[in-house]
Amino acid sequence: MGGSRYTGLYHKEALQSHRLRLISVDRPGRGSTTPCSVKHLSITKFSWCALELMDKLGIAKFSLMADSCGALFAAVVAVCAPERVQGHLALLSPWNLPSCPVASTKLKVAHRLPGAVVSLFGSFIPYLVAKSAKAGLHGFWGRQMRKKMSSAEFATLTSPCGRELMKQTTALLMAEGGKQAMINDMLLSLETYGPSDVHYTAVTMPVIVYHGDDDKLVPLKCAVWMRDNMSCCELVVKAGGTHNLLLDRSFMAGVVLPKLQSDWENQACTNA
């Protein structure tokens, strides 16, 4: 939620060392995509956009990795075209919907809020992020963000590369359409206007869920539920990891990316 196509650049060197090419796809309404209202936004329709992009790029098979509420969008791609996803579906700190049996009480309460209230709250988030970025994460809201991160995650965000990428991400959030995209994310994630058109249990291909045991936004029990209820799901728990697990460079470079690389190497050996 609030992510952008710049997020993957935190791991540019690690991706290169593992011989992985990252294609970050902006969700509908974000970046340079066509603005859209959440009432006309379907997670399933996004899968058609993603698959059409792969077709235009001439990519028959690809790995699939997603973070937080982006996991919902990745899951529907895996449901619609599992034969095109290489190896496994990698989900980092996957968002769980209010309809999930183990969803937190706070999430269920937020689900019952009127759409206008959720939209109003969502419209303030870009301003708070921008203010924190301008203050170098040392102001009040910056300190609040710091409390929700591990030391490794915070170090990535405050590195020279991290500060520059945060500025670019903030510019996207503050740009025309950026605030509405944030609102769309919140309304979809909270199932405010109706149940989601995709659920993790519909995924039949192998899945690896990476989750921090200090994730306050989506508790670890949600990841455990996914492991126990999806047809083929492995759970990898990062001690001390939070909902910002994607920002942990050492974890990404040492655990997540090598597994994606091995999927391709195993396929090459099979074809040899």
Q: What can you see in these coordinates?
A:
There is one protein chain. The protein has one domain (7-62, 70-84, 111-210, 249-271). The protein is 49% helix and 10% strand. The chain contains 11 helices and 4 strands. Helix 10 (220-229) links the parallel strand 3 (207-212) and strand 4 (233-238). The termini are far apart. The model has no long low-confidence stretch (mean pLDDT 84).
Q: How confident is the prediction overall: mean pLDDT?
A: 84
- Give the strand content: 5-15%
The whole-angstrom Rg is 18 Å
How many separate structural domains? 1
Low-confidence stretches: none
Distance between the termini: 41 Å
Helix amount: 40-55%
Biggest sheet record: 4 strands, parallel
Q: Topology as H/E string?
A: HHEHEHHHHHHEHEH
Shape: globular
Strand order of the largest sheet: 1-2-3-4
| SS class | alpha/beta
Pfam families: Abhydrolase_1
Protein name: AB hydrolase-1 domain-containing protein
Domain AB hydrolase-1: 13-248
InterPro entries: AB_hydrolase (IPR050471), AB_hydrolase_1 (IPR000073), AB_hydrolase_fold (IPR029058)
